[in-house]
Amino acid sequence: MREWPANGHSRPRSEAESSLSAAESGRRPTARAATVTRRMGTVYAIANQKGGVGKTTTAVNVAACIAEAGYETLLIDIDPQANATVGLGLPKDAVPNVYDVLAGEATADAAIKPSSIERLHVLPSSADLAGANVELPRQPGSEQRLREALAPVRDRYAFIILDCPPSLGPLTVNALVAADRVIVPVQTEYFALEGLAGLLDTLALIQRELNPRLTIAGMILTMHDGRTRLARDVEREVREHFPELVFDTVIPRNVRISEAPSYGRPVIHHDPHCVGADAYFELAKEVAARG
């Protein structure tokens, strides 16, 4: 079991940190951890307008790690591709789904489904959600739809994770308005920094105009192959540009992470001892430490 980094000074570990460490080592989290659920309810959006950077993989695995630690967790799939839905073993055609919630035809409570993982629930997506990109802008105040829909269920969950589509369109805006914090996956490839300035400008605009409580929890480097000079150079460059924002944990390029969705489960259940599972547990502990 890895210990939490001291960061140069001593501090007591939080409930979430202790529970995540216990889950990683195979121990059951303490009973007291469940009492934190009712006091928390932090909403995280996993966002980057670039595709293929590991948003869904990060959302699914961080959510699973937090649930494994004993916290009630809700994963909301707000991407019409529905990869997070399928990645947790749910069908793409489940009804009602997040499209019905945004359209006002169902409540979030009615649309939330249990997953095969204890304490992890899912608000699934479907291909119909693509229509929301056209329909939402026609409705006044549409950027508030998801936040309003989550209000009645938010207190049930310690953590709510929003898996965003690869764009800065109406669906992502809805997620960012509903969120407290944003996690930005950044692939360690040549175009890693391309588009980040635009994303940060969008986050600043939403914070100023629609959601003043929105903050960046951090950037996570994904699909990292430390054997290549390119990956090392990109990691150094991102850390130099955003020294306070980049998580210490780096998600490696790992075949077990890639194949886990085809089995409808996160990598920590597909192969709990692989380097990918270790990395996502470490990331989940960092997310909990940053509060």
Q: List the uncertain runs.
A: 1-13, 27-39
* Portion in strands: 15-25%
Cα radius of gyration in angstroms: 18 Å
Span between termini: 21 Å
SSE run: HHEHEHHHEEHHEHEHEHEHHH
Task: Please state the second-level CATH architecture.
Answer: 3-Layer(aba) Sandwich
In words, what does this structure look like?
The protein has 291 residues and is of the alpha/beta class. It has a single domain (35-290), classed as 3-Layer(aba) Sandwich (Rossmann fold), CATH 3.40.50.300. The chain is 39% helix and 15% strand. The protein contains 14 helices and 8 strands. It has an 8-stranded mixed beta sheet, sandwiched between helices. Residues 1-13 and 27-39 have low confidence and may be disordered.
How do the strands and helices of this protein lay out in sequence?
Elements: H1 15-24, H2 33-37, E1 42-46, H3 55-68, E2 73-77, H4 83-87, H5 98-102, H6 108-111, E3 113-114, E4 120-123, H7 132-135, H8 145-150, E5 159-163, H9 170-178, E6 181-187, H10 196-209, E7 215-224, H11 229-241, E8 246-252, H12 255-259, H13 267-270, H14 275-290
Parallel strand pairs: 1-5, 1-6, 2-4, 2-5, 6-7, 7-8
Antiparallel strand pairs: 3-4
Helix pairs in contact: 1-14, 3-14
